Amino acid sequence: MADEQATSGHEDTFISHLVELRSRVVKSAIAVVVIFLCLMPWAAKIFDVLARPMMAALPTGSRMIATGVITPFLIPVKVTMMLAFIIALPWVLYQVWAFIAPGLYKHEKRLIAPLVISSSVLFVTGVAFCYFFVFATVFPFINHFAPASVSVAPDIDAYVDFVMTMFISFGMAFEVPIVVIILVRMGLVPLAKLKQIRPYVVVGAFIIAAVVTPPDIMSQLLLAVPLVALYEIGLFMAPIFAKASKAPDSEEETV
After folding, report:
1. What is the mean pLDDT of the chain?
2. For the chain, which terminus, N or C, has the lower number of CB atoms within 10 Å?
3. 42, 185, 45: which is closest to 114 by C-alpha?
4. Which of 175, 81, 91, 88 is nearest to 127 (CA)?
């Protein structure tokens, strides 16, 4: 009987967690959809803004092309959805942390707001760095090597796929300090060990950059160097966050 009650209790807990997870996912999705619907009237203008770095690198009078029948409609919609997600990112991250919060101690919950804010800011900073600096450097560099016999007219579908990949890559790369802080705070990897593996991190950063960026040295450097710098920032900030989230008088009190 006791075993049956214990099993039933575990099942109820698991189901309650699933219900809570579904609620958090639905709340995140609703936020993204509402923002998306509000932005839809300006979908074409949003795409024009996204296309500016490429248009600036193309010869005067050149334009991008759409090879699909409904591509001129679908691609701006796709871009608008991406922008809606970025705008809703703080709310989405809050839902993630709120789902985790019940398993945290009281002093650890105080770090939810700083981590949500810093994660959002770092991701948006990575996207902005990619748009304003990387694209402004890489697109002219690539188009400079185009043969004179070739008319450069990028397809908007391929362009948006490339841009999204780069945005996600740089956005996630700029989250490295958060990853380092969490690893140290949760005791998964000692700070001394993270400092010890610096040479491997540098090699790994260049390997990752070579995989996710175009096959040119410029874009690879523009991702690998920030990755290494952000890793060092994480190493610097990790002890500060660990100290700030330490339980008072070593007492681990839950709420």
Report:
1. 81
2. N
3. 185
4. 175
Please, are residues 195 and 235 in contact by the beta-carbon 8 Å criterion? yes
C-alpha separations of 79 from 65, 69, 135, 159, 226 in Å: 16, 18, 17, 11, 25
The alpha helices in 130-216, defined as continuous H runs, are: 135-143, 156-173, 176-185, 191-196, 198-212
Give the Cα separation of 127 and 15 in Å (integer).
37
Structure tokens at 64: 């991008």
Q: State how far the Cα of 9 lies from the Cα of 178, in Å rounded to an integer.
A: 35
The answer to whether the CB of 91 falls within 8 A of the CB of 31 is yes
Confidence grade of residue 187 (pLDDT, cut at 50, 70, 90): confident
Report which of 201, 95, 218, 117 is spatially closest to residue 166, judged by C-alpha positions: 218
What is the per-residue pLDDT for 94? 84
Q: What is the distance between the alpha carbons of residues 70 and 4, in angstroms, rounded to a whole number?
A: 57
70 has pLDDT over 70: yes
SS3 of 248, please? helix
d(CA 131, CA 52): 9
**CB atoms closer than 10 angstroms to residue 100:** 12
- Closest by alpha carbon to 51, among 130, 144, 163? 163
Residue 251 predicted with pLDDT over 60: no
Residue type, 129: F
Please tell me the distance from the alpha carbon of residue 228 to that of residue 90, in angstroms, as a whole number: 25
According to the model, what pLDDT value does residue 255 have? 45
- Categorize the per-residue pLDDT at 218 as very low, low, confident or very high, splitting at 50, 70 and 90: confident
Q: Using CA atoms, how far apart are residues 163 and 127, in angstroms rounded to an integer? A: 10
Residue 106, amino acid: K
